[in-house]
Amino acid sequence: MSRAPNTKSGGILSPAEQARRILAVANFLREITEWGWSDAPARQLLFRSDIPRLPRPLPRYLPPDSDRMLAHALLESSNRLVADALLLQRACGLRIGELLDLEMDCVHQLSGNGAWLKVPLGKMKTERMVPLDDDSVALLDRIIATRSPGQAITHPVSGKPVQFLFTHHGTRLHVGCVRSELDRAAASAGLGHVTTHQLRHTYATALINAGVTLQALMSLLGHVSAEMSLRYASLFDSTVRTEYERALDLAKTRIGTTTGAGRTLLPITAVTGGNWRGTPTIKSRLAGGYCLRAPAQEACPYANICEHCPSFRTENSNLPVLQAQRKDAALLAQDARGRGWDSEARRHQALVKQLDLLIEETGTA
């Protein structure tokens, strides 16, 4: 089987195709044994080890910048109904078939529990409810206003007449039409080839980054097994990140050589080139020095905690230190704003205000 030729591509069969063929033979042998065929094998002939291991790539999501650029291109599209269908797919993590199977009564408003989207039977043959935020509700309102109303269309599975959400001039939107609009928007945004399923991957990845639980992710995506959702959990494993940051902190404290008097760290000028305020790090000005942290470590929860403590006291002789610290804090707030670190900028600005109070109290004491 591993050397069997692929008559379509001219190469050999892929591992996935090999696995399908081996499983088909294994199922055939198992079933004829269950049916009691006289010529069924007397023992098992195929085992799990005979099935080739398949590659398990991580879900292909869109990075945040690409996600924003694609959303902007879709919002600027003149093909409003199809573009909004793609925006809805991204907002709710739908499969393309589930998206196009949505019906007019898919939105359910629950008293005290907000709006929910009823996702029809899809790949897993199960229905589910997905919560909607205000933006998604507004998007659905726009879709309803844009679509072309018409007579009910026969559902291809149930055979019943249904008012589908995505209809245009009496016909349902076609998968090819949706993919063409996605290709156009991706090209307009300067991105490479993007698939509709990547929008679902992006939705799931954003939830994982926000700390959603595995059980909630399974429910939102309509997965029937935890293994399906664990692929997303492995993208950004918080345990791995915590261990990495712990090790990074420990490694940084061990930079340099050790002398008889204790550990000697690299001088600040060697790390920063002499300009500690201009480094692309999270910085704090302390009374006796400086603190530099990599952005991956995030801000220190104890930075400048003393200055904000109600038990903190100072005196007139410390005015030059407080004034120098205030000057540095103002520069650090400006630097953080320039880098887009809004929370870090607010932290420095809060320190500036606190130092103003301390300087005023110390100067009048």
Can you characterise this structure?
- The strands form five sheets. The protein has a three-stranded antiparallel beta sheet.
- The protein starts with 14 loop residues before the first helix and ends with a helix.
- Helix 2 crosses helix 6, helix 3 (80-92) packs parallel to helix 7 and helix 8 (214-221) packs across helix 9.
- The chain has helices at 15-34, 64-75, 80-92, 96-100, 134-146, 175-188, 196-209, 214-221, 226-233, 238-253, 268-272, 305-308, 319-338, 342-364; strands at residues 107-110, 114-119, 128-132, 153-154, 161-162, 167-168, 171-172, 257-259, 262-264, 282-286, 289-293.
- It is extended, with a radius of gyration of 30 Å.
- It contains 14 helices and eleven strands.
Brief characterization of the structure:
By secondary structure, the protein is mainly α. The protein has helices at 15-34, 64-75, 80-92, 96-100, 134-146, 175-188, 196-209, 214-221, 226-233, 238-253, 268-272, 305-308, 319-338, 342-364; strands spanning 107-110, 114-119, 128-132, 153-154, 161-162, 167-168, 171-172, 257-259, 262-264, 282-286, 289-293.
Tell me the β content: 5-15%
Task: Report the uncertain regions.
Answer: 256-268
Using only C-alpha atoms, the radius of gyration works out to 30 Å
From the N-terminal CA to the C-terminal CA, the straight-line distance is 89 Å
Overview features:
48% helix; mainly alpha; two-stranded antiparallel sheet; three-stranded antiparallel β-sheet; 365 residues; single chain; extended; 11% strand
Helices and strands in order:
Layout (H helix, E strand, L loop, with lengths): L14 H20 L29 H12 L4 H13 L3 H5 L6 E4 L3 E6 L8 E5 L1 H13 L6 E2 L6 E2 L4 E2 L2 E2 L2 H14 L7 H14 L4 H8 L4 H8 L4 H16 L3 E3 L2 E3 L3 H5 L9 E5 L2 E5 L11 H4 L10 H20 L3 H23 L1
Antiparallel strand pairs: 1-2, 2-3, 4-5, 6-7, 8-9, 10-11
